[in-house]
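Incident log, structure service

09:12 report received: a user says their structure output differs between two submissions of the same chain.
09:20 pulled the input from the user's history:
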Amino acid sequence: MVNSLEYDIESILSRIGINYTLEGAPNKVAGVSPIEEATENDLSFCSSKGQDAALSISKSNAALILCNSDLRTAVHAKPSQGLVFVDNPRLAFIRAVNHMQNEAIERRISPHALISKTARIGSNCSIDDFSVIGDNCSIGDNTIIYDRVSLVRNCKIGRNCTIQTGVVMGFDGLAYERLPNGTLEKFPHLKGVIIGDNVDISSSCQIARGSLSDTVIGDGTKLDALVYVAHNVKIGRNCLLAGGAKIGGTTKIGDQCWIGLNCTIKQKVRIGNNAIVAAGAVVLHDVVDGDIVAGVPAKSIKDKVTTDKVFMMAGQNQ
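09:34 re-ran on a clean worker, output below:
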């Protein structure tokens, strides 16, 4: 369930610019579920085509199902059920449910949040219980900060971002000079963290602030849980970093990259645009634009990949 409200999916699709054709009942929905589990109160979707899609749709009890337009003559709605035909059911479902969730979120600044006098908070933001917004931090409009988030200092968060529970950013990274006697002298961290617009950061991620240059995460990039980003790292736009990825200091990652589960990228490595780093890879050397690397140490496997859709498939987990 999204919440206890009911939603007019036709109205939502119209507002978010999705063209559709409805067959059957124009039902309102109160929740969302997978097609095989959905009830008469739920919205669901079927992104496949052909006989498998027709069978899944015929067995579903969902109130409304988003279906591929190619199925318009192949499937028909049950009594009291609606089939909504769109060009991309998965994308339409994502956008509709995100719209529903945004409507349901109560925007507030919790009285239990600790916010520095030097921090700046944009309009229509939400900051949940026990979060800390430290000195010289700023949060852009429409950004949501969940509970127990710590922005230690010098963090600039863009607009329309989501920072989930337990994220810590703006702390000093690991940078020391080893003296002849073996002791360690700490390198000063004077810069901060810059997060672009429309960035999502999942729970328990850690992002160190820069030493002499800012740590930067570009517009539209998404971090899964437990990602670690060291100081001075630059991550481009619309990247996906899967859970447990570790990014060493002063690494630069290009635009539209996929960084796989539990991979490790050594410090000062350069990852090109549209690159894919496979799960568990240990990247010790630069990766060129459009390459696919895997293994320990990571090596190019692009010549062994047989589909030209592998980059588009990266990230489609549902």
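09:41 both user submissions now match this output. Likely a transient worker issue. Closing.
09:42 reviewer note: The two ends are 17 Å apart (CA to CA). The longest helix spans residues 89-104.
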